[in-house]
């Protein structure tokens, strides 16, 4: 494509359009490349942003209370950490996350662009495919796995309502029984439909799911608390002490941050729709420190209460649900857990690959088409087989995940310390070799080199047994390696210009 080729982009008069299709009537703006721009990759208009502090809070109201997080936190109790130590670890982790997610969120609010486009600032207009696809690959695998885990809960609901359905669990086709396939496909279809309506529908679903989840976990905690005669065991009888306790707390805090290592990377996918920086701060404050404290109290009620009852800590809230004596309550609680899993899956594992694919083929894919392709990939990889294979989980997902820490360090240092928030949003969409983010043939070799160096070290930390003792701190170490390496290699000469993207911005319409 020649440097003076043009693409049709929306004019200010087109903001009210409800048709996101390529055939919409656009004004002409020179220099914007169709290989880098479409309505879903475009910056969001200031006037069209709808994500309030409550919208952001409900992201965390859902994600923090995921079943995986509960399994992890209850495991700390079983490993000998007292209730106070667990709350302390969550508090340290929450403070780190509040800072990291606020800084990451500000980037989306300022530019209005999704993560793959944001990555063009550091890696170049073509080089941004590297972080986009790495993040998307991790997310799409976990999308399938989380859908499979939720389908197991759905099977419990179906059998509770229709006991004869238990016979459909016999036999197997490609690793799933007939009931397994019905449950998985039902949840797969529901999630695909929600995402096909875009980020606005995701916002509405998260806003609906948040209160449902909070009420459900309060009810479960109170039920266990009552069963334990309104008292709990503060530890499992053999608590950690001294240096071992503090090392365990800091390691748990670091691991808590690492759980969100993927999300801090592409938080801008959501905050690009934030009404203001204040919305991000308020949403993060109530959703992270405050909500995580509430999460910790629920963990103590569930783990300490069950330990007080029978001397054994549960492994998951699903154990509490399974023990409910009333079928109606069991079904309602199970449905709430399914609502939760869908909410977490949408925000953490569906949005990232959808934007990554849109960024890969912007002339052919919009958000809806890319969402459908992401869903199909999440199905055809047969994620239940991945989940049941330690080799696949350990090598593929942990290997890709190890590279996300360095990516975060590189992108944050480049945005905040090198370019100091001076971003030319218009140049994020041009292939002109004079564009600020063209670097060398569309790739920033310094960022790529920093990723190779720090990523290699991160993989060594992940897979070499010698470093197992510091594995809890691996995300922080990897992110720091990426940040330091890029800080040394980066080109600071500039000049870096600050140009907003309102000229080519699009109001969210789906």
TrEMBL record:
Key words, A-Z: Membrane, Transmembrane, Transmembrane helix
Localization of this protein: Membrane
Coiled coil segments of this chain: none
InterPro entries the UniProt entry points to: Pur-cyt_permease (IPR001248), Uracil/uridine/allantoin_perm (IPR045225)
Key word Membrane present: yes
Protein's membrane topology: Multi-pass membrane protein
Record GO terms (molecular function): nucleobase transmembrane transporter activity
Cellular component aspect of the GO annotation: plasma membrane
TM regions (residue ranges): 70-103, 173-195, 207-225, 245-265, 285-307, 327-348, 369-387, 393-418, 447-467, 473-489
UniProt similarity note: Belongs to the purine-cytosine permease (2.A.39) family.
Name listed for the protein in its UniProt record: NCS1 family nucleobase:cation symporter-1
Organism listed in the record: Leucobacter tardus
Lineage of origin: Bacteria, Bacillati, Actinomycetota, Actinomycetes, Micrococcales
